[in-house]
Amino acid sequence: MLSSKTSFLLLVLLLSFSGVFAQQENATEIVRQMDQKMRGLSSKSEMTMKVVRPKWQRTMSLKNWAKGTDYSLVLVTAPAKDKGTVSLKRENELWNWLPAIERSIKVSPSMMMQSWMGSDFTNDDLLRESSLVNDYTHKFAGSETLNGRDNWIIEFAPKPEAPVVWGKIKGWVSKDEYLQMKVEYYDEDGDLVSSMIGSDVKEMDGRLLPSRYEMVPADKEGHKTIMVYNSLDFGVELDESFFSLQRMRTIR
Question: Around Cβ 38, how many Cβ atoms within 10 Å?
């Protein structure tokens, strides 16, 4: 039989493990609610992206259609020289349509960390290749007030089998509305690569969400990209066939 001392130590260990497990479960549930609020089952949005550099700026207008985590299509509507450029995610395939050469190009997994259209957002950011809910484990790392909102700080660690590009992510999620207020992206060596900060919270299609996100690289002074949602509609009727290579060539 186990001694009372041994039994007590086992009980302490079990309670410790159950506490860690419960914390992970709660953190994962917060991330799930944040993701569902931002993504929805389907959506259509119009955005303005401004790329800022020390000596120049450029602005693009975008349209985006998305269905769940597997389908996304981004269309550039301005400026004229980029108009008609399309990026498409269809399940595990990623494609770009370049109207200037009338050619579709498949994006390899090795290109997910590359800049999207010369901005500070990556292909992974715009096409949502990785899933914050399914591809990472989650744990609490503290709390902090940002722009008057109290936030959980949650650390994301990639699962061993997950096809992700980041070594670690830290996310700030508001405790009142589950808003994604800040994200820090780290490489495999633990060095900060870039930070994304949400602001200008407003109601869009019945949901309170940040309408402005600013992506700032950690090692490039004077560089940033600002993404502003001009409109965002959820629950849009979209069939999977909408996200096709043929649609890339014809959508306007």
Answer: 19
User: How much is the pTM?
Assistant: 0.84
Per-residue exposure over 179-217, b if at least 16 CB sit within 10 Å of its own CB, e if not: bbbbbbbbeeeeeebbbbbbeebeebeeeebbbebbbbb
Question: Is residue 81 included in any domain, yes or no?
Answer: yes
User: In this predicted model, what pLDDT tens digit does every residue of 112-153 receive, in sequence order?
Assistant: 778 999 999 988 777 665 688 889 999 999 999 998 999 999
Structure tokens at 98: 């370049």
Strands 192-204, 57-67: pairing kind: unpaired
**Which CATH number belongs to the domain containing residue 44 in this structure?**
2.50.20.10
Q: Residue 198: which domain range?
A: 35-250
- Write a three-state SS string for 4-35: HHHHHHHHHHHHHHHHHHHHHHHHHHHHHHHH
User: CA-to-CA distance for 20 and 24, rounded, in angstroms?
Assistant: 6
DSSP conformation letters of 79-125: STTTTT-EEEEETTEEEEEETTTTEEEEPPGGGTTSBSTTSSSBHHH
- Residue 32, sorted as left (phi over 0), alpha (psi -120 to 50) or beta, turns out to be alpha
